[in-house]
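Running this now, will post back.
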Amino acid sequence: MAAVEAQPQATTDIEVLPDAPASPLEQSPSAEPTTEATSKKSDIPRGKTVSGRPWKAVQNKRHSSMRPKSVRPGWAKQVEERKQKQIVKAIQDEIIEAKKAEKEKKKQEAKEREERKKANEARGEVVQKVSAAKLKRMTKKQMRQLKKV
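Update: finished.
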């Protein structure tokens, strides 16, 4: 038998990372979707957009759910803010009511003043009796200037 020389085996420098999944089935759901999944989403025929702007991106999530959780105020803080807003609104309503009442009061006083003025003028006027014969002799212009009592 011929002596077989031991040939050195070819080694590959491929390192297996311990964190990387061995097969696509072992991938976690948080991993990026494969190109097949993304291509399926883009292959779905879409109708014309309502706005008529086909270049606009489709919104997948509500804006409120996209907001980071840390930005949201706590429940106690929200309740406190609501109470503060109610207090401010109550004060504003009181101020508005006071202004309306003041305006109504001034309007009523002006009306009473006008009535008193008319009554005083009527009391101060000199009244004359005009006979029927004199009325017949008067012109239309003179009759218009007369006041009936």
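DSSP finds five helices and no strands in the chain. More later if anyone needs it.
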